[in-house]
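Recap from last week: sequence in, structure out.
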Amino acid sequence: ILIVLLSVAYYLHWDDRLVHVFREQQTSQDERKASIWLNRYAADIQAKPVDSLLKAETSGLTWHEPSNTLFTITGKIPKLAQLSPDGMLLREIELTGVADPEGVTALSDGRFALVDERRSTLVVFSLPFANTLDLSEALQIRLELLDEVFLEPDNKGLEGLTWDAANSRFILAKERNPYALYTLEFDLANNSFGRLDRLPDDKLFVRDISGLALEPDTGHLLVLSDDSGLLLELDELGEPVSFLSFIMGFNGLYKNIKQAEGVAIDSNGVIYVVGEPNLFYRFIPTEN
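Predicted C-alpha cells:
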C-alpha cells in the first residue's frame, strides 16, 4: 500500500504541491494582490453540459473581449462555438481545411488563431458571417519547420495557445513527451512572424499541458494540466505563483474535473474551463 501511495504521489507531483502550499503561506498580501492568486477562486458553475457539442468534444477556450463572450474549439468534429459567460451555446461555425484543431485565442485586431495539432500548424483567421469556414485559404504557419522537436514522431503535439498583446506574440504549448512552452513573435499589421523560442518550464509541477490563458494586467500565464488535474499560475519568469486543484472538495468543487482541455480568463478575472466531451465550468474570485 505504501509503495502504491508513493507511486501515486510521485505521478501527481504531490511533493511539489506540498512544497508550493508552504511557499504560498509565506506570500505577502501585496504579492497576492499583484497576482491572479488562484487560491481565492471557487466554482459557481460546475459540469454544465453544452449538449450539441457532446460528439464534437470541446478543447481550447478563449475570452473575446469585444463581444463579452467565449469561443471554444472542438477537435473530433472541427467547430468553433461561441458561448455566453454562463455556458450557453450562442453560435456554431463548422470548420474545414484543418485536421485536428486544438487551442484557440482571440487576437488584438479582432481576428482569431488556432493550432492544428496533427499538422503542427498555427492558423490565423477572421470570423465569417456564415456558419461555415474554410481555413485552407487562411494564413497558416507551419511550426515544424521552425523547430525540429515537432518532427519527432513519439512526441505529442501542440495543444495550448494564447495571445500576448503586450509583447505582440503567441505563447504555445506542446502537450507532453516532453511538454514545452514556446513564444512566437507575430506582427498583426503585416502578418510576419519571428523565431520560435523556448520558455523556461523546469519549475512546472505538471504531467502535461492541455491549455493556456494569459492575464494581461499581471502578465501571468495560466497553464492547464489535464493529467495533473490542476491550473497553475506562472509569473513572467516562469515561476509558479499559485494553483487551483480540480479535485473534489477543493475550490468549491463537488466532483473532480476530468479531461480539462481549455481555459480562459475575462477582464473581471473570472476563469472558465471546458473539459471533454462537453462540460463547462466557471470559477469566480473571492477575497482571500
